[in-house]
Amino acid sequence: MTVTVVYGGKSGEHEISLVSAAAVARNIDLKNNVQLIAITKNGRWFLQPQSEFERIKADTKAAFKIIEDESQEVSVIPAGGTKRTFRVGDKVIATDVVFPVLHGPFGEDGTIQGLFEMVDVPYVGCTTLGSAITMDKEKTKVALAQAGIPVVPGICIRRSDLADWKRYDDLLEYAKNTLGFPLFVKPCAAGSSDGATLAKDLRYLNGAIVEAFLWDDKILIEKAINAREIECSVTGNPTIDDDSVPAEKTTAYGPGEIAPKHDFYDYDAKYNDPDGADLLIPANLPEERLEEVRTLAKKAFSALDLAGLSRVDFFIDKDTDKLYLNEINTMPGFTQISMFPKMCAAFGLDFTSLTNLLIEEAVSRFHKTRKLQTSR
After folding, report:
1. What is the DSSP letter of 271?
2. With contact defined as beta carbons under 8 Å apart, do 317 and 227 qualify?
3. Hey, which residues does 8 pair with through a beta bridge?
4. Quick check: 374 and 58 in contact, CB under 8 A?
5. Alpha-helical regions (H) of the chain
6. Most distant CA pair in the chain: distance in Å?
7. What percent of the chain clears pLDDT 90, i.e. is strictly above it?
8. Dihedrals phi, psi of 325, to nearest 5 degrees
9. Residue 73: left if φ>0, alpha if ψ -120 to 50, beta else—which one?
10. Which of 67, 144, 155, 289 is the most buried (most CB within 10 A)?
11. pLDDT band for position 114 (50/70/90)?
């Protein structure tokens, strides 16, 4: 089987993708043929030489580099299918499945998933709809609340609200009086804590709002929970699981706990500082609480029609012991310190078995959905 790993991308998480994708590629089963396509920060696609794959295989700490060879620029063929998926010059490039290791906008927001649907090729990860919903933190909270899953109290502010000073003042007044300081401010559709700030008072709040609006046209202001940060890995496909394909069974691994050594689990703590947080797997919780988290994670995965994989993040309020679902990441990090693969491994699914399972789910989903009637 030929597996095409796609990485890089037009997002603030471009560099993290280079690290995550290298880890994924070197842990794809040797029975498969791996080919690489890198997307530059300005959105150009380039087929990468086999030597780049061999380089990261030989060095377990290496990240991918992007080689921009003009003769290897890639275009995508609509309705090309697995036999005619990509084109490089006059040459057609086939693939059996695409493994997009792309974080953030243009990677896990449904855009590239929609492209692969139009190409008619299997791809690892959530569908167009599931990816789009979970990328928008406001819409995710609305959908989860509708499903009876507890979410962190907060409000959404749109850029248009800034043009109406009375509306804006009312929103700030609500945030101050109803949610109370400290407050957490973040863009609705950015990842890896980009643009996220902890606001301790009104003066910090205004600055945090300005920062968040640099990243998105909608932002969330949420109550800053005095929280323990709990994460749970989930795989499967609850929408089409009929017990015929083991990879489709919805399974939760973990949960684990993150104990940040920064003000919160920010970008530096996640990716740059190897001592930025303590990672506890399993979380230091009684078994009945661990099972509650696993159950809620699977319920959220199902409620949002997710597929393939996701990392579901929770807060446990240290003051009230209340459990909240914070957010869902449909293409979590695969770096050396990332929780998703660590939790899977700790609960019996090693990295190569994980990539096998995700590829199996992607191919099975493709064949099942292609049997649906599309015309009369």
Report:
1. I
2. yes
3. 39
4. no
5. 14-26, 50-58, 111-119, 128-135, 137-146, 165-174, 202-213, 267, 287-303, 339-346, 351-369
6. 63
7. 89
8. -85, 125
9. beta
10. 144
11. very high
Which two three-digit tokens encode residue 347?
């609960």
Residue 49 DSSP symbol: P
Residue entry with tokens 């190409």: 119
Q: Retrieve residue 279's tokens.
A: 């990672």
pTM of the shown model: 0.92
Q: How far apart are CA 18 and CA 104, in angstroms?
A: 13
Q: Cβ distance 223 to 301 under 8 Å?
A: no
State the Cα–Cα distance between residues 212 and 135, nearest whole angstrom: 15
- Axis crossing angle, helix 351-369 with helix 339-346, rounded to the nearest 10: 100
SS (H, E, C) 147-212: CCCCECCEEEEEHHHHHCHHHHHHHHHHHHHHHCCCEEEEECCCCCCCCCEEECCHHHHHHHHHHH
Cα dist. 259→25, 262, 270 in Å? Answer: 29, 9, 11
Unique residue bearing structure tokens 């159950």? 295
Please say whether the beta carbons of 357 and 247 come within 8 A.
yes
Q: Which of the four pLDDT bands, split at 50, 70 and 90, describes residue 375?
A: confident
Distance, CA of 239 to CA of 242 (rounded, Å): 9
Q: Are 229 and 315 in contact (CB under 8 A)?
A: yes
The CA-atom distances, in angstroms, between 257 and each of 103, 254, 304, 326, 350 are 22, 9, 24, 14, 19
| Higher pLDDT, residue 273 or 75 | 75
- What are 17's two structure tokens? 């993708």
Q: 161 CB contacts (<8 Å, ≥6 apart)?
A: 167, 168, 171
The counts of H helices and E strands in the chain are 11, 16
Spatial separation of the C-alpha atoms in residues 369 and 33, rounded to whole Å: 25
Is 174:125 a contact under the CB 8 Å cutoff?
A: no
- Is residue 66 within 8 A of residue 96, CB to CB? The reply is no
Buried b (16+ CB within 10 A) or exposed e, 233-253: bbbbbbbbbeeebebbebbbb
Q: And the tokens for 205?
A: 């709040």
- Is residue 341 left, alpha or beta, with left meaning phi > 0 and alpha meaning psi from -120 to 50? alpha
What is the number of alpha carbons within 13 Å of residue 194 lying toward its C-beta? 17
